[in-house]
From TrEMBL:
Residues 252-264 have a biased composition (Basic and acidic residues). Pfam families: CDC14. GO terms for biological process: cell division. This is Putative cell division control protein. Keywords: Cell cycle, Cell division. It comes from Venustampulla echinocandica. Residues 240-264 are annotated as: Disordered. InterPro entries: Cell_div_Cdc14. PANTHER family: CELL DIVISION CONTROL PROTEIN 14 (PTHR34065).
Length: 296
C-alpha cells in the first residue's frame, strides 16, 4: 500500500495536468479497492473492477457495509497509515488543490479541481482525524475561495459538500470557518444573482446543517462518523472496530472540545447578522426534522 501511495503522491505533487490526473485516479483506485465489495474472482475481475470506477459505462461493484470496513485488514492498514504525516492522503490532496487554484481557469483545470474535491470528501469520511487540516486558515480559505462566482457551478457545488465533510463533528473547524467570514461568504453567494438555482439549493442545505447543535469531536479512530448522501449526521458503524482502552484520555479530550461548541440558538444569532430569514430556517428544521429530530 505504501508503494501505491508513493506513486500517487509523486504524481499529485506535479504541476503537469496529465500527471495530476493520473495521481488522482491512482488515489481513487486505491480507495475504491478498500470501499467496494470484494469477490472470490480472479485477478482479471479485480482489474475490471478498478476500470469500472473510471468507466461510466460499467456498473461498479456494490459498496461494502460500514460494519464490514472495520474488520477489513486493508482498511485497518490504510487507516493506520493516515495517522502519520508521511502517508496522509488528505494532506497531499489539499496541497494539490492549492497548486490547481494557482492555475488559469480552463475546462481541464476545473475538472481536476472537482475530482480533487470529490476525493477530499471521501478521505475525510474514511479518516475523520484528517478533518483537523481544515482548522488551519489556509485550507479553509481555499474552500471559501472556490465558492466565489468566478468558479463554475459544478465547482461551487462540490465545494459545499466538501465543506460539510470538513465541518461535521469538528467544532474547531467550524470556528475557523466563522472567523474567516464563512457565513458572509455563504449568504452572499446565496443572495447573488450569478449563483445558479442548483448551487442555491445546496447552500440552503448547508445552512440547515450549520444550524444543527454541535457535539464535541474526539479526533481519534473511535470517533469516526459517516455522512451518507450529503448532510446526514449519524454515529459511525466503524467505531466498534477501533476500541480505545484509555477512556480517561478520551474524556479529557472531549471535555476540552466542549469549550468551542455552539448551540443552535448561538449559531442562529451569528447567521442572523447576514440573513434575515434565519428564524424561518430554524422553524423549518424543528418542523421537518431532517436530521433525525435533533432539534425537536
Amino acid at each position: 500500500m505504501e508503494a501505491l501511495l508513493s506513486l500517487a503522491f509523486d504524481n499529485l505533487s506535479s504541476y503537469d495536468q496529465g500527471k495530476i490526473r493520473k495521481g488522482l485516479r491512482q488515489v481513487e483506485g486505491l480507495l475504491a479497492q478498500i470501499c467496494l465489495s470484494t469477490t472470490s474472482a480472479s485477478p482479471k475481475s479485480a482489474a475490471e473492477k478498478r476500470r469500472s470506477i473510471i468507466d461510466p459505462g460499467k456498473e461498479p461493484p456494490p459498496l461494502k457495509a460500514l460494519s464490514e470496513l472495520g474488520g477489513d485488514p486493508a482498511f485497518r492498514e490504510f487507516f493506520k497509515l493516515q495517522d502519520g504525516f508521511e502517508w496522509n492522503v488528505a494532506m497531499r490532496l489539499v496541497n494539490c488543490l492549492d497548486r490547481l487554484l494557482g492555475k488559469s481557469h480552463d475546462g481541464q483545470n476545473d475538472l481536476l479541481i472537482i475530482q480533487t474535491l470529490d476525493l477530499i470528501q471521501g478521505i475525510l469520511l474514511l479518516h475523520p482525524p484528517s478533518r483537523s487540516l481544515f482548522s488551519r486558515e489556509l485550507y479553509m480559505n481555499h474552500l471559501l475561495d472556490l465558492l466565489e462566482p468566478v468558479n463554475c457551478p459544478a465547482i461551487q457545488s462540490a465545494t459545499i459538500i466538501t465543506l460539510v465533510c470538513a465541518l461535521i463533528e469538528t467544532p474547531a473547524n467550524t470556528r475557523t470557518f466563522e472567523n474567516l467570514e464563512g457565513l458572509w461568504t455563504i449568504t452572499s453567494s446565496f443572495k447573488s444573482r450569478e449563483t445558479t438555482r442548483e448551487v442555491k439549493l445546496k447552500l440552503v442545505e448547508f445552512l440547515y446543517f450549520y444550524l444543527m447543535p454541535e457535539t464535541p469531536s474526539i479526533p481519534c479512530a473511535n470517533s469516526t462518523v459517516s455522512v451518507p448522501a450529503m448532510l446526514q449526521r449519524s454515529p459511525s458503524k466503524l467505531a466498534g472496530a477501533f476500541n480505545r482502552t484509555d477512556t480517561g484520555a478520551g474524556r479529557k479530550r472531549s471535555d476540552s472540545e466542549t469549550e468551542v461548541t455552539r448551540t443552535t440558538e448561538e449559531k442562529q444569532a451569528l447567521l442572523g447578522r447576514f440573513l434575515s430569514s434565519v428564524d424561518d430556517l430554524v422553524a423549518d428544521l424543528r418542523e421537518s426534522t431532517p436530521f433525525g429530530g435533533a432539534l425537536s
